[in-house]
Amino acid sequence: MSSINLLPPPITSLPLPTGAATEATLAIIKTDIEKPLGTWKHYSGISGGILTLAGERVIGITAYSKAGGEIDLDGAVLAVIPPGVSVAIEPNGNLAGIHNFLFTTTDTFIVEVVY
């Protein structure tokens, strides 16, 4: 009686599929995971401007306006706030360094950063 081997030959190595993690991509992923980590602080107020500092990463921007307002970032409109609405933006640390925020006609705002 003869036997037939139906098992494939043993695999000695696997090719990496396209997009597989390499040391470089793992370093980028590690950096992205660490973006919202660090020492927390915040800037807050009613209306007006704030300046984030070098080395800070913005993790949250929130503002409320009873009459309707606006959030500007570095001279450009970031968000228009409808009357009676609170707006929350979470850049998750992707907004880093020195930035000028201007909150116009807002009743309250907070910018959260880590450094």
Overview of the structural elements:
The mean pLDDT is 83. The protein is mainly β. The radius of gyration is 24 Å and the shape is elongated. The termini are far apart. The chain is 10% helix and 44% strand. Strands 1, 3, 6, 7 and 9 form a five-stranded antiparallel beta sheet that branches. A four-stranded antiparallel beta sheet has the order 2-8-4-5, with no helix packed on it. It contains one helix and nine strands, in the order H-E-E-E-E-E-E-E-E-E. Strand 4 and strand 5 form a beta hairpin. The chain has a domain at 40-114: Jelly Rolls (Sandwich), CATH 2.60.120. The protein has one helix at 23-34; strands spanning 40-45, 48-52, 57-65, 69-73, 76-81, 85-89, 95-96, 99-104, 108-114.
